[in-house]
Fold this protein.
Amino acid sequence: MSLRPLTAPWFHGPAGHEKIWLGCAILWCFVMSLMMPYWHFRGKQNSTGEAYSVKPADFLARTEKFVAANRVGTFKGPASNPMLGDLPLVEPPAGGDAYLVGRMWQWYPALRLRLGETYRLHMSALDLQHGFSLQPLNMNFQVLPGYDHVLTITPTSKGEFTIVCNEFCGVGHSNMSGKIFVE
Amino acid sequence: MSSPSHSLADPGTPGRKCGTTGLGVCLDAQRFIKLNAVCGIVFLLLGGIAALLLALTRWQTIHLLPVDWFYRILTFHGINMLILWILFFEVAILYFACTTPLNARLFSRKVAWVSFGMMLTGAVMVDYIILAGQADVMMTSYLPLVAHPLFYLGIILVAVGTLVAVFNYFATLYVAKRDKSYTGSVPIVTFGATAAAIIAVVTLLHGAVVMVPTFTYSMGWTPQPDPAWYRLIWWGLGHQSQQVNVCAMVSVWYLLTHIVLGSRPINEAVCRTAFVLYILFINLASAHHLLVDPGVGATWKIWNTSYAMYLAVLASMVHGFTVPAGAEIAMREKGYTSGIFGWVTALPWKNPAFSGTALSLVIFGFLGGITGVTLGTQQINIIAHNTLRIPGHFHVTVVGGTSLAFMALAYYVIPLIFQRDFIFRGVARVQPWIFGIGITLLSFGMSFAGSMGVSRRSWDIDAQGVYGPAAHLWLGVLGIGGVLAFLGLLIFVLLCVGTLFFGPKIQDRAMADWGTPPALAGSSPGSLAHDHYATKGTMVLTLVFLACFAVYYFANWKALADVWPVR
């Protein structure tokens, strides 16, 4: 009985249907536990959390240096989103480092990447926490101030991609945007 | 000092005998169950009004609130629903679980007043400062976002007040044992509530560790804590508190299936072990909020997700079997033996406490559980983190699961503790269905919009120019579900409040029956106690569940495999 204290001995092991279900459940939990290490070695999409400590001002200085060295043009922000404005369009060397700053309320600068090349994408925030959300692919990573979060990433589809911010960062949050072009 | 006995069996102890169940009710506990439940329901209404405004804003066609009020109301909604409504109602459940089932008197009225006073003061403080526009930081208040110090102080007060109530709970368990108010082992409801109380202590200590330095920072006394550190410890509060809810909810499932159907746990040892698994293995599961964070490595993420989480998942899968199995056994013993599912159709679906429990179990398991484990898988989190898939998941665990179970419980708490029969009983019978269907629709809207990349906690999706008609359609489904769920919530609150004022009084008689399945000819109570193969229907249902789980889980791995390689 569920509401009165138990006086008769109540300890006995699982049996019958209950035992069958327990077996199924344990097996399934085991499968799920093994999927993650399996994917870490065999799968191609993992979040390793590679990160380095960095002061926001230093990260901005590195980004500006990266922009000055690799700028290839200007991305004109759409009229529908005045908060974004114009961004420098920057093409990092194939296999090299790229920098992306998250700040209220834009992802700076716009990037041009080459299909099938692998880049080390450094991301950090200057003010609040931001969320890197690459659309329409729907890949999402957290970006924190003080942390240089490095993604080793390989674009495998061509086109224009939008970086949305998906961590709340004040009233301009829903307008916070950025661009990645893959050619 | 001669302390009076805390056993209700002793003369002079302030108690009464319940006219319906014949069980002893401690009058001190009764008063604080009433106070806490009423406060909980008031905060439920406040959070519910906020929910309606939010749903009508994210429904992009209506887009009701202006941007600043959207984030303000979103903060208000999270705090009122996840912290205030749930904690006040859980304290009421704790006061019940340590007194009536053990025939015991509450340890201390004074301690209960202190707890209640602190919780209510803190709650009013937090709500005031949010509505004053001084704390637009979301419930998580991630640093470096900073709110008015009263916001943190209010949360600390609510947390400490809850800890004081938990102390009263453990003290009552102690004096009940000392004064021999009961013999034998505590019943499963008290056992589950104790598990919830233990996890609550761990949870609230995390809260203290993270909130106190954040409060002193907001006062300008100490430097800013590290944002990544804040996330790690905050989720020790944020996630574990949900495990308190799960424990309380599962205890309510056992309680209500017992009250309505007369079911008993099919195996006390297994059910109790499952509660222990919650305590032991949930602590690290807060890691699944940090699965795409910088600074914590893949090994840390994988270990803390699977090792800890899947044993807690196992515990839920055990309860997901034993609760319906207990019901099946009880029904078969009453004589509902036809076929595999004859007992299901004979269940009292018009009894709101039962339909609420059953919907809670199905919504929590099939929707909340499956999505939660899948989204909390380390790599799959890449295609889910901070999208609407996340609230799509937790609205079917903590709302469709916990809140609905607590609503179901109220259909017995109000007649038995407040001693008034419900008004408009016909309306009450459909309330759990309206709420359950609404919240399910809401969750589907959120989950599918989230799969299309729509982010959570965002006022608008049109400025980005990347979301098409399908995403807008699912946000419309979110809106309609939200309106329906709000309607169910409003009916619930009006019924409860109306009953407290106008419900027919119950003195020394049984409460009006909501409907329980009568024993048929050929019923034989206890006859299946040793038949371990009598739960065919439950076996089929749980295997269907496992199949759904596997399909959803591997479909998500497939979706993940389609995005860019990243490490």
Remarks:
- Chain B has a mean pLDDT of 93.
- Chain B touches chain A through 111 residues (CB under 8 Å).
- The first helix of chain B runs from residue 27 to 58.
- The CA atoms of residues 439 and 485 of chain B lie 5 Å apart.
